[in-house]
Write a structure and sequence with these properties.
The chain has 16 helices and 22 strands. It has helices at residues 39-58, 61-77, 79-90, 94-116, 157-169, 183-193, 209-212, 214-217, 230-239, 263-275, 292-307, 327-342, 372-375, 391-399, 414-423, 457-463; strands spanning 7-9, 12-14, 18-23, 30-36, 122-124, 134-142, 146-149, 173-176, 202-204, 223-227, 244-248, 254-257, 287-291, 346-349, 362-365, 382-388, 403-404, 406-410, 428-431, 447-448, 451-452, 465-473. The N and C termini lie far apart (75 Å).
């Protein structure tokens, strides 16, 4: 599975700049070659986006929706091919890679529907005497060229969450995919380039970090959308000037399991939420707060289920957990585990390297709250278990984090459900499931260090448009 993947500038394939080999984290084999665009290619893409803004804005709604629908159909038709590319570049188990391809198709289809439903409202303005006879009308207008940077962990679908809403809103976009995993985004760039957009509407360019950093400061772009680490995202916000910013950043997602929970359901979902794609998701289960009465039972069941996971080759359909993105990341998490053990944590299972970038699915108990495995974003196949006696203790522990993306709660108590919704300082509360659960049209995003704004096509389109007001004075002189 090796080939050449051109980048896309203004709808045309390109092979300039520095050749770049993409290697699978599983065994280091080359899975494809592309090119890292330089300053000349960056400027060509940015200039083309500016030039395309008027023609894209003038496209009829049905035309933009039809483009998105065509891309959705191609993603569906080619999902097996795309899944193999994802499994290669990211080390994502093939069954999970297939789901990601299906989700990307849904993201484009939902964006097509949202394009058809871009509406304003009529506002009565006669709430005071000087408003008598006046009527207000609002519409949303494209914000202008969009700069986008997507991460390595969902390289296809998180690119789709930037590209599809931009086109639905009528904005040209330049996307920098993650350098480690650019190939699936390049396939997506080709689909968009063939789908009937004006020249210049979409560019997808792998770039070295120094080149890509120009997306943050270049004034030709009116909005920056970034998914990645919190430290990098907040630094971008500081340097972005007057650009509007959408930041989808890190997390250390927590789950609360009270004494009324269905433990078998909770064990099943925590295993999936903690170890799918080797835990490399900002909403992967990391902290699990379990009521004292059920802690031992839950811990025993979870340990047994985690030990039954199959770890190995991402192209093997039976694999549950593939490699981490790099050996450096594996070494980092192992150091964190050793630090937690030295501070009093216990290993229930895992805690060791078992392959080139393969880390055994790990369950820890009783790690100190200030240990990195609890306080930082672990981004690895690791789940920590913690006891609580009263609900307010668990809510307080979840809120102690600097992050606030999503949280999960397993309970049969309606009161606990609404308490969690009222009191947890997060962007979303998922009851009787893990915080890892997401469907692509829902509002998704965080608070505190976890970001600004919301994704989901409807909500991203709102971020990528400007609300304009028309006031009509109907009075006659």
């Amino acid at each position: 599975m090796s080939g050449r993947f051109p980048f896309w500038i203004a709808g045309k394939a390109g092979q300039a700049g520095a050749p770049f080999e993409v290697r699978t984290p599983f065994d280091g084999a080359v899975v494809g070659q592309t090119w890292l665009a330089g300053d000349a290619e960056f400027d060509a893409a940015a200039d083309a986006a500016v030039a395309a803004a008027a023609s894209l804005r003038a496209m009829a709604t049905y035309e933009r929706a039809d483009v998105l629908t065509r891309v959705s159909a191609e993603l569906t038709a080619r999902k097996d091919e795309i899944a193999r590319v994802l499994a290669g570049e990211a080390g994502k188990p093939i069954k999970d890679a297939t789901v990601e391809a299906e989700r990307a198709a849904m993201t484009f289809q939902v964006a097509a529907e949202e394009a058809r439903h871009l509406r304003g409202e009529v506002i009565p303005l006669d709430l005071a005497a000087h408003g008598k006879g006046r009527l207000g009308i609002t519409r949303r207008f494209p914000i202008g060229p969009v700069a986008a940077i997507s991460p390595f962990n969902f390289p296809l679908n998180l690119s789709a969450h930037k590209l599809a809403p931009a086109i639905a809103a009528g904005n040209p976009i330049v996307l920098k995919p993650a350098t480690k995993t650019p190939l699936s985004a390049l396939l997506l760039g080709g689909m968009l380039s063939r789908a009937g957009l004006p020249a210049g509407a979409v560019s997808v360019l792998p770039m070295a970090r120094a080149t890509g950093d120009r997306l943050v400061t270049d004034e030709r772009f009116k909005l920056l959308t970034f998914t990645g680490s919190s430290a990098v995202g907040w630094d971008m916000k500081r340097r972005a000037g007057r650009k509007k910013i959408i930041l989808e950043l890190g997390g250390n997602a927590a789950v609360i399991i009270d004494d009324s929970a269905d433990l078998e359901l909770a064990v099943q979902r925590v295993t999936t939420g903690g170890f799918a794609f080797a835990g490399q998701s900002c909403i992967a289960v990391q902290r699990v707060y379990v009521h004292d009465r059920v802690f031992d039972d839950f811990a025993a069941r979870l340990t047994a289920r985690v030990e039954a996971l199959r770890v190995g080759d991402p192209l093997d359909p039976s694999t549950d957990v593939g490699p981490m993105i790099s050996e450096d990341e594996l070494a980092r998490v192992h150091t964190w585990v050793e630090e937690a053990l030295a501070a009093g944590a216990r290993i229930l299972t895992g805690g060791r390297q078992i392959g080139r970038a393969l880390y055994a699915p790990t369950v820890l108990a009783d790690a100190p709250p200030d240990s990195k495995v609890c306080a930082e974003e672990v981004f690895a196949p690791l789940v920590g278990l913690y006891r609580f006696a009263r609900m307010e203790e668990a809510l307080r522990a979840v809120n102690s984090s600097i992050y606030g993306l999503q949280a999960g709660l397993f309970t049969n108590s309606l009161d606990h459900s609404f308490r969690a919704f009222d009191e947890l300082d997060v962007g979303g509360v998922i009851v009787n499931d893990v915080p890892t659960w997401r469907i692509d049209h829902m509002p998704y995003g965080g608070v505190k260090a976890s970001g600004l704004g919301r994704e989901g096509p409807h909500y991203t389109i709102e971020e990528m448009t400007e609300l304009k007001l028309l006031v009509i004075n109907r009075q006659q002189t």
